[in-house]
Design brief:
The protein is α+β, with helices and mostly antiparallel strands. The protein has one domain. It contains seven helices and nine strands. A six-stranded antiparallel sheet has the order 7-6-5-4-8-9, with helices on both faces. The chain has a three-stranded antiparallel sheet with strand order 1-2-3. α4 packs across α5. It is globular and about 40 Å long. The termini are far apart.
Length: 262
């Protein structure tokens, strides 16, 4: 029995070592057969005057269980004209510990359909792949930044995929919001030439956004379990004073049937 146990332990050890070696040798890529929703990388130019020009902002429309249209558009933004910043949380487990989060920047009415501009850090999946927490730890997916209208990001999840969301108003100091917006834009531009891996623990949808906040305002959000247990980040941000818990809106299919998103 002891011999069998020793053989099993050795087999597990060498199997884990082989897997670790294989994973460490994998390199992220720009060219693969991507799922259509993450195939297009937004183009980014930051002008000397501080304006951010975005190309191929996604603006798809959805019905229940169907994609109705697949549009993109270009727009130029002045980060100093950000009116508000919003956080969306998509719960992914019954315990409320894991969630997908993304942000929406609100601009003035003269920005038209690009007035509510979202940025979502996501896995760049190939056409045959589905997201998994384990795959996210084993370099199964590149990371991508999806710039899209709020209407696209929300109705894709709620109306098309039937995932409820919760929307919160963020309390970001006015001097930080423009820096964060430019930081996100520059990071998006960097991914177009130097792809990176998504990582469930260290480079997920929430921890990436927090890292960008801290690079815009050092020390703003201290390390916390919510960087990994992403479904709890709303409580942590509220505790820090960055999130208005009273602003919460539960966005479901039923809610969208009775209300305009904005």
């Amino acid at each position: 029995m002891r011999t069998i146990l020793r053989v099993a332990v050795v087999a597990v050890f060498f199997g884990a070592a082989a897997l670790a070696a294989f994973v460490s040798l994998r390199e992220p890529a720009l060219e693969r057969h991507w799922d259509e929703d993450v195939a297009v990388l937004a183009g980014v130019d930051v002008t000397d005057g501080g304006l951010v020009r975005l190309r191929d902002i996604r603006d798809w429309s959805y019905a229940a269980d169907a994609i109705v249209s697949k549009g993109y558009f270009d727009a130029t933004y002045d980060p100093d004209e950000i009116v508000d910043v919003w956080l969306y949380e998509q719960q992914l487990d019954d315990a409320g510990l894991i969630a997908h989060t993304f942000v929406v920047f609100e601009f003035g009415e003269d920005y038209g359909r690009g007035r509510w501009l979202g940025m979502s850090v996501e896995t760049r999946r190939e056409s045959h792949e589905e997201y998994s927490l384990i795959g996210g730890m084993l370099r199964a997916f590149e990371v991508t930044h999806i710039w899209a209208t709020e209407e696209d990001l929300v109705t894709r999840r709620v109306r098309y995929l039937d995932y409820p969301l919760t929307r919160y108003r963020l309390r970001i100091p006015p001097e930080i919001a423009p820096r964060l917006f430019v930081k996100l834009a520059r990071e998006t531009a960097a991914l177009a030439t130097a792809p990176r891996w998504y990582n469930t623990v260290s480079n997920n949808c929430t921890s990436s956004l927090i890292r960008y906040v801290n690079e815009s305002e050092p020390g703003a959000i201290p390390r916390h379990p919510s960087w990994v247990l992403t479904g709890t980040v709303d409580d942590y941000l509220a505790e820090l004073g960055y999130l208005d818990a009273g602003s919460a809106v539960a966005v479901t299919r039923e809610w969208l049937d009775a209300n305009a998103l904005r």
